[in-house]
Amino acid sequence: MYRTLSRVLGLALLTSCVVSCSKNEVAPTVVPTAAPRTADATATRDSHLTLGNPSGATANSANYWNYLVSKSQYAMSYHRDRGTPNWVSWHLSSAWLGSTPRQDNFAPDNTLPAGWYRVSSTSYTGSGFDRGHQCPSADRTGSVADNSATFLMSNMIPQAPNNNQRTWAGLENYCRTLVDAGNELYIICGSYGKGGTGSNGYATTLDAGRVTVPAQVWKVIVVLPNGTGDAARVTTGTRVIAINTPNNNSLLTTWGSYRTTVDAIESATGYDLLSAVSASVQSVIEARVDNGPTS
Fold it and tell me: φ and ψ at 168, to 5 degrees?
């Protein structure tokens, strides 16, 4: 009887210990994943040419050096004989951003006029130059269709790898932090001149002369808080970032080192940037070099 009672008491004590120990066990640490980007309720998808058509491009194939391409994701002036866009303009707000991964499906733009040479995904192969997005992939993550549109070769220029992957990537990432802070941006970028230096050295053209390597790559960014009537909301106090970089592989990583004025880019290209903004405002913001934060 005593032995039986001892065994019962011992078993109860062991069970109590097991329960107590299980309650005190430390749960494994769970590392939270990054929260998906959510659109600001006030953010919208607006026209890419709200602030103007810099070169007066038209959708007339006879205008082969300044052909207007209008897509849902961006607008551009395309130059048939250079095989690159003169400029690409797009609106960026959180309404354009989502969780779609990078598609990497580079392809010719079959919407270009019949008979025009279509730059292919292999036209830059072995050249030492990147297929440099003008409208970035990461600015169009709302859907597969939006992201895929950025991989059309009409949206590319031959860009020196360090220019594309370091200097310009830093600026593009910074733009998205401005969006995360509740802003919408109007971005216009382009290139001009002939001849750049990639990882294989200097070149003026690729693809048997059908793609021109630009000498300079530029970008203009207008920063506004989310809202409506955007062109009319641009004031003399609006932040405008203008960057102009040589297309070579020895650039500094700091994009802020290449800040310039909109006026200087207009002088170099002959374009009329921000033409939908009032002339009095343009005269102030286009003459000013941005001195705001870079990160």
Answer: -75, -35
What is the mean predicted confidence (pLDDT) over 143-167? 98
pTM above 0.90, yes or no: no
Integer angstrom CA distances of residue 140 from 85, 99, 109, 150, 166: 18, 10, 17, 8, 20
Is residue 204 within 8 Å of residue 194, measured between CB atoms?
yes
Distance CA 274, CA 292 (A): 20
Determine which one of 48, 79, 91, 133 is catalytic.
133
Q: Which pLDDT score is estimated for 190? A: 98
- Using one digit for the tens of pLDDT, what is the confidence trace for 228-261? 999 999 999 999 999 999 999 999 999 999 999 9
User: 218: which 2 tokens?
Assistant: 């530029």
Q: Which residue has the tokens 């969006």?
A: 179
d(Cα 83, Cα 283) in Å, to the nearest integer?
Answer: 33
Catalytic: 79? no
Per-residue model confidence (pLDDT) at position 37: 56
CB 88 within 8 A of CB 97: no
Cβ neighbours of 80 (radius 10 Å): 18
